[in-house]
Amino acid sequence: MRAALTWRDRAEQCIYDLAFKPDGTQLIVAAGNRLLVYDTSDGTLIQPLKGHKDTVYCVAYAKDGKRFASGSADKSVIIWTSKLEGILKYTHNDSIQCISYNPLTHQLASCSSGDFGLWSPEQKSVSKHKTSCRITCCSWTNDGQYLALGMFNGIVSIRNKNGDEKVKIERPGGSSSPIWSICWNPSSRWQNFWSRVDEEEEESVCSYLEEIPVLESRPGSRQDSQPEKKDHEEQESPFNFRDERNDILAVADWGQKLSFYHLSGKQIGKDRELSFDPCCVSYFTKGEYLLLGGSDRQVSLFTKDGVRLGTLGEQNSWVWTCKVKPDSNYVAVGCQDGTISFYQLIFSTVHGLYKDRYAYRDSMTDVIVQHLITEQKVRIKGRELVKKIAIYKNRLAIQMPERILIYELYSDDSADMHYRVKKKIVKKFECNLLVVCSDHIILCQEKRLQCLSFSGVKEREWLMESLIRYIKVIGGPPGREGLLVGLKNGQILKIFVDNPFPIVLLKQSTAVRCLDMSASRKKLAVVDENDTCLVYDIHTKELLFQEPNANSVAWNTQCEDMLCFSGGGYLNIKASNFPVHQQKLQGFVVGYNGSKIFCLHAFSMSAVEVPQSAPMYQYLERKMFKEAYQIACLGVTDADWRELAMEALEGLEFETAKKAFTRVRDLRYLELISSIEERKKHGENNNDLFLADVYAYQGKFHEAAKLYKRSGHENLALEMYTDLRMFDHAKDFLGSEDPKDTKMLIKKQADWAKNINEPKAAVEMYLSAGEYMKAIEISGDNGWVDMLIEIARKLDKAEREPLDKCAFYFKQLDNPGYAAETYMKVGDLKALVQLHVDTHHWEEALALSEKHPEFKDDVYVPYAQWLAENDRFEEAQKAFHKAGRQTEAVKVLEQLTHNAVVESRFNDAAYYYWMLSVQCLDIAQENEQQKTEMLQKFHRFQHLAEVYHAYHFIHRYTEEPFSFNSPETLFNISRFLLHSLTKETPLGISKVKTLLALAKQSKALGAYKLARHAYEKLQGLHIPARFQKSFELGSLTIRSKPFHDSEELLPLCYRCSTNNPLLNNLGNVCINCRQPFVFSASSYEVLHLVEFYVEDGITDEEAVALIDLEAPRVSKRENKWQEMMSDYGQSLRLDDSTDIIEDDDPFTAKLSFEQGGSEFVPVVVNRAVLRSMSRRDVLVKRWPQPLRWQYYRSLLPDASITMCPSCFQMFHTEDYELLILQHNCCPFCRRRRDESNQ
Questions:
Q1: Going from the N-terminus, what domains does the chain have, and what CATH number goes with each?
Q2: What's the pTM value of the predicted model, to 2 decimals?
Q3: I need a labelling partner for 913 at 20 to 30 A (CA). Which of 230, 568, 588, 1024 fits?
């Protein structure tokens, strides 16, 4: 560090204070009773300002640069604008001692001998506060919240913005040590590293990783080499305060001490002893340095910790004020004799480099070691000025004014970043350069080199002929390292630490500026004072080449023939004897390792990644593939690797090509090289053929074809062009004598036409090549029906596979006619049948099945399924029957039935169950093994059909707002269901709805006992919320009714004339004779019919014949029953007058039974009784085999009954006729009225 005087001026009066304008362009000087305004660039006096009547003691500039203020012994403060105009003036009771602007609010604090005032532009008045002692100095904190006041009695008072005292600091000297200057550190970050007072631990090492701001400086002498690696931190000093935001106050008193305090009043460290009375203290803009001036007539530079670094310049009188120009290294000094001096501080670069470790000075007392590869840093703290730095392998030497410290790494790991003190040489040395070795320190003093041990003992000394300009350690065993020394007279020496005799390598005519030796120690690069880089052969002393515009040079540590040098703003890279490759780069080259170049620019060391592409291509141009590969290994792009691989491959340098392709992971070319190497092992040595393969892989097809032809392998050229779809070129290599090659070429051409979306051309080519299948596939995929039928008609019927493919596409393209034509041509009747089935052309399919019964199953099964899907169930059953698939028919109907129940379509469910019962009866008729099972299912399905048919009305009654059935009908249906559901409740049927309907209708019709029973049953069931209110109301109101049922509602048994109760535990049979009741399928009233059976031995046909044989006797009146027969019903109707049946009716006698029996005794009649019956009185259910017919005798002449001839359900004739008119079919089995009875 040195100070250069920029300009100086002399005023007549003492200079008490200075202030810089915030932009640094002007300097305000308090000289006598005037203010002098200087231009800082050249020291020109811009204007003197008059306004005070007495000596001006203080001056301060606002941070925003809009105004400044001055305070004088005339007790006044004047506010000036930046245009040098006075705008405001106010006074105190005593002379003004100091003033200071708040850095944020621009509030002005003015201090006098007995008080201080606070003024701001917004206020009209100045608020003043009394003090007990004279104020000598003041300073605001960075955030403008607190004001520190220095007192003449040795007290520092810290006040808030309102003037209230918050902290009071009493200095040990008291009134004998007046506080003459204070200043807050302007930096918002404070890293404090105070060392122990313990003399044993004079230095501490700390790992402090951060980017450190640097000052502008010029590069000085240096000692360097090349890189290594790592990323560890160093142990921290125990006195390391946390990195935190702090306000640090520097206090200088006339007890000749410098102290530092926190805002809280706590002192930092101990007092720093001064040898003079300090009159001023001032920080640099960033707070890294401190200036002190006073009675010693000079300005001293201190670190922010209070470590003295040096002197700026000696003066002839006391220094009353010194200030730093904002954001610069310029310092203004004001003295007692009126001298105003303006200095520039120049901080030199102190650093050292070895491989990838770079050590440099920071904050003048610290050393930072940086790993250039990982960018990791470690800080070594010191309390003294660092003068020189040297680094070598695991050693680090730091020279301070009175000693040299030698550090070593904790471990032998080359990546370790932990340093510790190894030795101390407590001596004062003066030297130009410092070099450290494993066990020695080398000092350079002009022409002299001294070798010292780490204990400080001088072991050896060398005296040179001329000044030493450059030293570099070039390695060697510990204690025997070699040094490369360059002299001003152009001599270059090699010195070994253990050898007193220097070895002269060579001598040139110009002075040496920089040196470096190649990795193999065979070549020497020198930069002379003419900025010329000269390269010598060390053994022959021959000058190999030279390059201009060089200021530093470095050999590549990994490649013997590569070096780089910098100069003129360019980085130059030279390989062997090739021309130089240049790129722009500012700074000095100090190291070159692989692809990384270490460059020092100003104070910053950086590792620049430089692709080695240019030198690699230079080697490639001369077909030096192995050398080019070595260069590429230093660092090139993937594109460069690929270019190297291709060039080596074309040059048939397969080993280099393989390594290069491995780098870019190109498996395709690696496979090619592997195949060529394998062929060479088997004795193949035709280089033209190898090169042709290489050209083919590279896309140089014409060159490849020429080489194939030259090597006698035209077939390979043909195959290549064919694969490339370059058919015109392929024809040039086509042999005319081989038709197979022609056909193959046409086929490949067709494949290519297909791939490039030219399908028509591809079809024509495939047909020419006889590839019918591919032509058909393309035509079919594109929907070309005309092309397909043309191909199909041209093909011979023996060409089965292509014709089948044509038919397949005809079906897919919805052209069943052409498909049928194709199948007929082939004679494939099975496929033709399947075609008609798939296209639902049932007439054609059925006609074919009639002609060819073997296809019966193939037609009728899908036909039946199609009918079932289209709700044509009767036809579907017939189709299944014809196909012999009764089981499938049953499964379909069962699924339909289940869906109808789940969807609450109970009328449909009844119909499906009836159809299922009929289907089961058909199966029982045809299959003897399943007869019993099917008959059981028949009766079960018949019963379920009747139950669901009845429940359909209950469901509609409970779910729909209006009912179409009378209360009596709903009452009868509810009773019928209640008696039918004694064992189990089928899926979907709700007992709750049934009982609710029964309860309501019973109550309405007067069956109160039955209603009460229904409500009681409902109490044990879960009632839906929507029925809950109705149920509760009904349960309550029914209790007000009598406990009996209306006799009119009691059902009558027409066999024994017994009135049955409404609630019958036996079900739908008489409680007396057990005769089953016969119900109307519409109103569900008990019909006046009694079922009877014929005796064994009488067939159904004989029984009907006996009934039809002779009319029964009637009364003497001519009026009698008339029977009406039709296709849709069988009924009995009474004429105008009532028949009077004679009492001696044989059937009536058969109705008698034995009273008191619990078993049902059916009515069985013989032939005589049958003959006595009239056909008009009997209804017959003519069930098909294996069931017997059922016979019913009408006992009342006053009502007509009709039976459906299909489902054999009974109806009152009027009801049946009405239902037929409404629905045009039977309500139970849905037999249409226009259908004939089958």
A1: 2-11+95-190+245-346 (2.130.10.10), 350-429 (2.40.128.630), 614-728 (no CATH), 735-827 (1.25.40.10), 842-883 (no CATH), 885-985 (no CATH), 990-1042 (no CATH), 1052-1238 (no CATH)
A2: 0.52
A3: 1024
